[in-house]
Write a structure and sequence with these properties.
The complex is a heterodimer. Chain A is built from 20 helices and 2 strands. Chain A is an all-alpha fold. In chain A, a hairpin with a 4-residue loop joins strand 1 and strand 2. In chain A, helix 4 packs antiparallel against helix 5 (108-127), helix 9 (212-230) runs antiparallel to helix 11 and helix 14 runs antiparallel to helix 16 (385-399). The model of chain A has no long low-confidence stretch (mean pLDDT 90). Chain B is mainly α. Chain B has one domain (2-481). Chain B has helices at 2-18, 27-48, 80-98, 107-126, 130-139, 141-151, 156-185, 190-195, 205-219, 228-235, 238-263, 265-291, 296-316, 320-351, 362-365, 367-380, 387-402, 404-429, 446-464, 467-481, and strands spanning 57-66, 71-78. In chain B, strand 1 (57-66) and strand 2 form a beta hairpin. In chain B, helix 2 (27-48) packs antiparallel against helix 3 (80-98), helix 13 (296-316) packs across helix 17 and helix 16 (367-380) runs parallel beside helix 19. The chains are: A mainly alpha, B mainly alpha. At the A-B interface, helix 17, helix 18 and helix 20 of A face strand 1, helix 5, helix 6 and helix 7 of B.
Chain lengths: 498, 484
């Protein structure tokens, strides 16, 4: 039992700190709220990811791996990869929110607590190998995020929260339906299990042929429902509205962490549970088509945006499309799942630092100027060269131009797709990259060549500067020395080659 | 050595950005110093190059990305082709920093981006791994985008974006081609790829050929993919035009030879007649467009389209003579067009107009500038004893053996180019004296004179004694063709 708890220690630590924040906030104190509260909360909230990452590191160095909780949770390189990723994202969001969080007023503590709760659920999600646990973790993440989206309590934010909730509820229902179907077909909720025990994977391996139609239906349900979380077509329409209306740090969190969590689930379900050839040939095609449509739709719609958050919303739909190219890159060769998976994992890491850098600048501008209109970014380079430079660099990385993480990530994912003979899909993907340059670089151009409305420089908190610096350094480092992250992604993806 | 040559400019860029704001005026000295050092380095590399030895020289190889299914290396080295073009790059970037002497707008950033651009170009010519080649190829985009859109004139945003989108479209297709080749051969090493038979590619090698050709045809440019060029040139600052015409276009020609001829010779041979036809069309159509221009800078830009058509013609012939001619044409066009752009910039700097109809009789007030322009113009139309003549002669000698009709058509292009050059010189410099321009100063500043002198020296030097360049280029061509 203690072993089991130890193996999900990071989840417990993260959730524990979140709960402590809520309790601490209840403690009686004078009104108005003390000025130092924001700083204290920031430090407090940082303890969560730090503790979780530390625990994960300890598990890694002790070489702890294996199943726990009756095979429903697994600690492997894949879990660890995502744990570190989520801890990093949570820390960055917390650091960047110090100034913006003042707008939440008395709910400032709740904001930090919700970030940590959502992250804790994501940690659990990445390590789950059981459909029920996956669903519970997914819902915990979602519910935290519904609240976070409406935390500003103005018209926009509330609308975003409601929209997110309604769409999310439908998606959850569809996911649940798919899961139920899968359970009905196979009689188990375990995706994979240690040798000799029954699991979805073994049942399909035995009797896959006779249940092919049912499996197909379940796969389509799962893909459709999860596409809400991944923010890809056909469940993408909430993205721009929610990104625009919800608080800026929440939009950042949704665009990075929530998306990564969704892809972790998809990898677990499809690459482990449904990896038999009986069904994989079919879902590979679905992924390829969804990828093509998402990239194209996201990029085309992004071009017309005048609000930077809506633009990043559509851009994130397109980026998710690129990631799906990697998901579809299942090659017939041996270890066919790991090449595509490692490219997906690498892309996820690269995308996380890149999109975080972009969003941190958006948070800073939003907190200072209270605007997200691209027109208001004009001449930002004169007012705050470092913020503008960081955003421009992140946009260059999103376009996929060297020397950035985004360049290597796209290269690697396209390579995996070519090896799976998906040349047509790569063709669509590269043309999409070209189209995306138009709107990414347009924003960069506006910042560097536009006339600022005022010459007043923008100040930011030191915490935000730190987070931004780390993210930008990450983009550059991964772009020039990709090997460490590549090795980590490859090790994590190796779980799919067994 | 080679890595220093490639990355010294990036170090310069960092140093420039670290310059305190009140020292901003001194950015040009720092940039010129670094550019000069890099020119010296490239000269040392060039003189140290052994043209008898047909292997890659000054090689450096480090594993960069290594996974089970994807290996890319940092592999640089030079053969005769690379060495010459890197020398040209070193020379033109020094010229570019010098003729930017009067840039007052955010000079630190300006020079820093120029230096990053130099790294990208040097890298393209030195890379011996397809992925590394692609990396440097793309690295050029951001500096160019910013240099045109911040320091340009006219519709600079539009032109900068057009340049980026055209280049990216080509390179995106090229990337697909590279990945297919790399997967088929199991390596991205250009040296190994040239030996590989590329069995079982994911798509047919003919398709790969056209995917890669797209990038180089856009860059060169070949009609009908040339429309980005006049816009980019017209709106770019002078130094960027110099670099664009001088070396960036050469990346296209270099890619044609190094990658398409080197790695896909069979496919190249299958389609070379069509390429020759396209080349002839580029020469003639480019020349006709040039004649119609009323803006001096646009005129020079269009003349590049015509002149790069000769490069394609020489390459398409697929023989040693034609390829050497094409390579030499790249070098000479680099120096000649650079000089022409320097002169256009100089005129614009003083007269603040580039409309040919507004300018007249400038030779009366600026005799030195007029003389240099005439020298550049004569070199451009291929006058013997100037470098352009040797290059075009070699191209025609090479291509006439392979295909007669396109060659004959292209030779007509020479007449046209003589026409537009002489007509332009006459209108701008030797027309009736216009009192409006009586106060224009001639070139006096040292940085203008050094730039002009250096380029004129090279143009005449290579024209009189071409062997200095030709021998080296020939060794590169022989290596590419696999001749012993």
């Amino acid at each position: 039992m203690l072993d089991d708890l130890d193996r999900i220690g990071p989840v417990l630590a993260m959730a524990g700190v979140a709960a402590l924040i809520l309790i601490w906030d209840f403690l009686p104190r004078g009104r108005p709220l003390p000025a130092a509260r924001g700083k204290a909360l920031l430090v407090f909230a940082l303890v969560g990811p730090a503790l979780a990452a530390g625990w994960a590191y300890s598990l890694l160095s002790r070489d702890e791996t294996g199943f726990s909780f009756a095979n429903s949770v697994v600690l492997d390189d894949f879990s660890l990869y995502f744990w570190f990723l989520f801890c990093g994202i949570a820390a960055a969001i917390v650091l960047a929110s110090q100034e913006y969080a003042k707008r939440f007023g008395e709910y400032e503590a709740e904001f930090y607590a919700l970030v940590l709760f959502a992250t804790a659920a994501m940690l659990l999600l990445a390590a789950s190998r059981d459909l029920i646990l996956i669903f519970i973790a997914l819902e915990t993440t979602s519910i935290s995020q519904y609240i976070m989206a409406s935390l500003l309590r103005d018209e926009r934010s509330t609308e975003a929260g409601i929209k997110y909730l309604l769409m999310g509820a439908v998606a959850s229902a569809v996911i649940l339906y798919g899961m139920a179907y899968l359970f009905g077909l196979t009689g188990t909720t375990r995706l994979v299990a240690p040798d000799g025990e029954i699991s979805i994977a073994t049942v399909i391996a035995d009797r896959g042929d006779e249940m092919r139609a049912g499996l197909l239906l379940a796969s389509v349900m799962l893909i459709a429902g999860l596409s809400f979380k991944m923010a890809v077509v056909p469940f993408q329409m909430w993205v721009p509205d929610v990104y625009q209306g919800s608080p800026a740090p929440v939009a950042a969190f949704l665009s990075v962490a929530s998306k990564a969590a969704a892809f972790a689930v998809v990898l677990r379900i499809f690459y482990e549970g449904l990896s038999s050839e009986v069904i994989s040939d079919s879902w590979v095609d679905v992924f390829a088509i969804v990828a093509a449509v998402s990239m194209t739709a996201g990029n085309l719609l992004a071009m017309a945006q005048s609000n930077v958050r809506r633009l990043l919303g559509y851009s994130s739909i397109a980026q998710a499309g690129y990631i799906m190219v990697g998901l579809a890159a299942v090659s017939a060769a041996e270890g066919g799942f790991s090449a595509g998976a490692s490219s997906v994992l690498f892309f996820m890491g690269a995308y996380a630092v890149t999109n975080l850098a972009a969003f941190i600048v958006v948070i800073a501008v939003s907190a200072r100027l209270g605007t997200d209109e691209i027109a208001d970014y004009a001449g930002l380079a004169r007012r705050s060269p470092w913020l503008a430079g960081a955003l421009a660099f992140a946009l260059v990385s999103l376009t996929g131009i060297p020397p950035t993480a985004g360049f290597v990530a796209k290269l690697y994912i396209f390579n995996a797709a070519v090896e799976s003979h998906l040349v047509w899909l790569v063709f669509i993907a590269v043309l999409n990259s070209v189209a995306s340059a138009f709107y990414y670089l347009r924003v960069a151009g506006i910042m560097f060549t536009g006339e600022p409305k005022s010459e007043e420089s923008l100040s930011t908190t030191n915490a935000l500067k730190l987070a931004l610096m780390v993210a930008v350094a990450g983009i550059l480092f991964v772009g020039i020395v990709p090997s460490p992250l590549l090795d980590a992604a490859r090790d994590a993806a190796a779980v799919f080659s067994q | 050595m080679l890595s220093l040559l490639i990355f010294l400019p990036v170090i310069a860029a960092v140093a420039l950005m670290l310059l305190p704001r009140d020292q901003e005026k001194n950015a040009k000295y720092l940039a010129a110093l670094f550019a000069a050092v890099n020119l010296v380095l490239s000269l040392l590399m060039y003189t140290g190059f052994d043209s008898i030895d047909l292997t890659l020289q000054f090689t450096e190889r480090v594993k960069w990305i290594e996974t089970s299914n994807f290996t890319a290396q940092y592999f640089v080295g030079v053969d005769g082709l690379s060495a010459t073009l890197m020398l040209l790059t070193g020379l033109l970037f020094l010229v570019a920093t010098l003729i930017s002497w009067r840039v007052e707008l955010r000079p630190r950033e300006y020079y820093a981006w120029l230096m990053v651009l130099e790294t990208a170009v040097m890298g393209v010519f030195a890379a011996q791994d397809l992925i590394l080649f692609f990396l440097f190829w793309e690295l050029e985009l951001v500096p160019m985008f910013l240099l045109i859109s911040i320091w340009g004139t006219g519709r600079k945003q539009y032109s900068a974006m057009k340049f980026v989108l055209y280049t990216l479209s080509g390179s995106a297709l090229m990337l697909v081609g590279f990945l297919v080749i790399g997967f088929a051969a199991g390596t991205f090493d250009m040296e190994k790829l040239a030996q590989s038979d590329l069995a079982n590619p994911a798509i047919s090698l003919n398709a790969v050929f056209f995917l890669i050709l797209a990038a180089f045809a856009i860059k060169l440019p070949v009609i009908p993919l040339h429309t980005w060029l006049p816009d980019a040139h017209t709106d770019a600052p002078t130094a960027v035009s110099v670099i664009l015409a001088g070396v960036l276009l050469k990346m296209g020609g270099y890619g044609l030879i190094r990658i398409l001829v080197g790695i896909l010779p069979q496919q190249f041979h299958d389609y070379h007649v069509y390429l020759a036809a396209l080349a002839a069309a580029s020469v003639i159509y480019g020349a006709i467009l040039t004649m119609r221009q009323t803006d001096l800078k646009r005129l020079i830009a269009y003349s590049s389209v015509s002149h790069m058509g000769y490069v394609l013609l020489g390459v398409a012939a697929l023989g040693e003579v034609g390829l050497t001619g094409a390579a030499l044409q790249m070098f000479t066009h680099g120096t000649i067009t650079a000089l022409l752009f320097v002169m256009v910039g100089l005129v614009y700097d003083r007269a603040h107009t580039r409309q040919i109809s507004d300018l007249s009789g400038l030779a009366h007030v600026m005799p030195i500038a007029a003389t240099v322009f005439v020298v550049a113009g004569l070199a451009s139309l291929g006058l013997p004893t100037m470098s352009g003549f040797v290059a075009e002669l070699l191209i025609f000698l090479g291509s006439v053996q392979a295909f007669e009709a396109p060659t004959i058509i292209a030779v007509v292009g020479i007449l046209l180019s003589a026409g537009y050059i002489l007509w332009t010189v006459q209108r701008v410099f030797y027309g009736p004296r216009n009192e409006k321009w009586d106060d224009l100063p001639d070139t006096t500043a040292w940085w203008e004179q050094v730039s002009m002198a250096a380029l004129v020296g090279v143009i005449i030097g290579v024209g009189v004694y071409p062997a200095t360049i030709v021998d080296v280029l020939e060794s590169g061509v022989r290596r590419t063709l696999g001749l012993g």
